[in-house]
Amino acid sequence: MHLPVNHPARPVYRVLAGLIGVYILAFGVYGVVLTWDTGLFGRGSDWSLGLRTNLAFSIVSVIFGAFLLIGASRRGNLGHYMNLTAGAVFLFTALLMMGLLQTANFLNFSMSTVIVSLLFGLVLLGTGLYDKVGPPEHAKAAEDRRYHPVGEQHR
């Protein structure tokens, strides 16, 4: 599998992941304050920063937002793997909750929450794919492989 190493736009991708982490953390903290007196898996009409929530979803968002901020603050490959993992989790959760919207909606998702989760998942997967760090030799080898196909290297 080929992932770009030391991509020049790596700082931009880290900032994107960090902004998503800040939003999710703020959403979670405000949601916890808003839904503290309701049930853990309540299905009320509580909205936090434009998305419907309950106490369980808010607590998970606080944890996940902190996770993303830690990943965005790391310069090594830890952030790379954290963003890939977070992107996959966001996509999986969005698809799962979309399937459960009308039946067992235990996180009190709405369709707008599903759409935002899908967008965040795609952005985090993209940031995870392009923020891999490696020694200059690995970056040079990746660049050579990109610009010189395998057949041309042996001539």
Task: Give a structural overview.
With 155 residues, this protein is mostly helical. It contains 6 helices and 2 strands; from the N terminus they run αββααααα. The protein has helices at residues 10-35, 55-73, 77-99, 111-130, 136-147, 150-153, and strands at 47-48, 51-52. A two-stranded antiparallel ribbon has the order 1-2. β1 (47-48) and β2 form a beta hairpin. α1 (10-35) packs antiparallel against α4 (111-130). It is elongated and about 60 Å long. The mean pLDDT is 87.
Strand content: under 5%
Helix content: 55-70%
Structural class: mainly alpha
Main sheet properties: 2 strands, antiparallel
Count the DSSP helices: 6
Low-confidence stretches: none
* Silhouette: elongated
Secondary-structure element sequence? HEEHHHHH
As an assembly, this protein is single chain
* Mean pLDDT across all amino acids: 87
Calculate the terminal CA-CA distance, rounded to whole Å.
24 Å
Beta strands, count = 2
Query: How many whole angstroms does the radius of gyration measure?
Result: 19 Å
Q: What is the strand and helix layout of this fold?
A:
Blueprint: H1 10-35, E1 47-48, E2 51-52, H2 55-73, H3 77-99, H4 111-130, H5 136-147, H6 150-153
Antiparallel strand pairs: 1-2
Helix pairs in contact: 1-2, 1-4, 2-3, 3-4
List keywords for this structure.
155 residues, mainly alpha, two-stranded antiparallel ribbon, 6 helices
